Amino acid sequence: MYEAFFEMKNTPFINSIAVEGLYMSPMLDEALGRLEFAAAKRLFTVVTADVGCGKTTAIRKFASMLPSDKYQVLYISDSNLTPRWFYKGLLDQLGVESKFYRGDSKRLLHQHLEIIRGVHGKTIVTIVDEAHLLDKETLEEIRFLMNYRMDSLNPMALILVGQNELWEKLKLQRYAAIRQRIDLKCELPQYDRSQTEEYIIAHLEYAQGIKDIFTDKAVDEIYKYSSGSARAINKLATHALMYAAQRAKKLIDDHMIRTVIAGELP
To answer: Domains in the chain: how many in total?
Structure first.
C-alpha cells in the first residue's frame, strides 16, 4: 500500500532486500573483505553481532560475491544441530546420501571435498548460522572436521555466524581447543546516529521512489528507538511509512515517529 503512495518500485525496509540495495557501512565492508580472504584461504572464521544487526543479511551479501566457478557455498541453520545432522546437511547439499554413523559420513564428506577441489577446482565455503545455539559436542565435531592431513590443509572455508554470546562462550576455558583453531573473527556492531541516517537513505534510494521522507528529527527518534539495530530500524520505518500513507502525509516527522512507537510497536 505505502509503496504506491510514495511512488516506490521496490520495498525498502525488509530483511529480504536485494543484496545490491544493502547499505554498505564501513564495518560491513571490512567484514566482507575479511570473509573473502577467509574463503580464498579456507580459514575457520567466526562472525558475531547483536540481535538484529544484520548477520544473516551480511552473509547473504558475502555469498553473492563469490564466483560460482570457484566456490560452492553450503549453508546450515539449525538450533538443534547434532554432529550427525551436521554431516547429513552438508552431504545433502552436495547431492550425496549420508551414512548412518557420523564417522562414515565424515570420511565421505572429505572424499567429496577432495573431488570438488581437485577435479572441479572449487573451494567449499560452509556457513553455519545461529552458531551461538550449538552445543559443545557439535562445536568440537566442527573442530575435528577442520583437522585434516595432520593440520597441513583446511578442507574448506568454515564460517560460524552467531550472536555475541557465541564469542563469550568460546572464551570459556572448556572451549579453548576450538578457540585456538579460529583464524579470523569479525564483529558487526550496531549503527551510530549518522550510519542510521545513511542506512535509511540507502534503502530509500533502492526503493526508487520519493527520497526525502524522514526529517532529521524523525531520524533522531528512529535511532533512539532502534539503538542502531537494522531490524528495529526496518520495523519502525515500515510502520511509519504505512501510518503516513494512510493519512496521505508525504513527510514523516518526529511527532509521527513517536506516535507510531506509542501506538503500534511493543
So the answer is: 2
Nearest to 159 by CA among 186, 134, 127, 135: 127
Q: Note whether residue 21 is domain-resident.
A: no
What would you measure as the largest C-alpha separation in the chain, in angstroms? Answer: 67
CA angle 62, 180, 103 (to 5 degrees): 80
Write out pLDDT tens, residues 57-87: 889 999 999 999 999 999 998 878 888 888 8
Mean pLDDT score of the chain: 91
pLDDT digits (tens, 9 = 90+) for 234-253: 999 999 999 999 999 999 99
Same domain flag for 77 and 146: yes
Pick from 188, 208, 240: which residue ends a domain? 188
188, 206, 234: which is the final residue of a domain?
A: 188
Q: Residue 101 sits in a domain of what CATH number?
A: 3.40.50.300
Taking the CB of residue 225, how many other CB atoms lie within 10 A of it? 17
The 3-state secondary structure of the chain reads CHHHHCCCCCCCCCCCCCHHHCCCCHHHHHHHHHHHHHHHHCCEEEEEECCCCCHHHHHHHHHHHCCCCCEEEEEEECCCCCHHHHHHHHHHHCCCCCCCCHHHHHHHHHHHHHHHHHCCCCEEEEEEECHHHCCHHHHHHHHHHHCCCCCCCCCCEEEEEEECHHHHHHCCHHHHHHHHHCCEEEEECCCCHHHHHHHHHHHHHHHCCCCCCECHHHHHHHHHHHCCCHHHHHHHHHHHHHHHHHCCCCCECHHHHHHHHHHHCC
| Residue 195 counted as domain residue | yes
Structural domain that includes position 66:
26-188
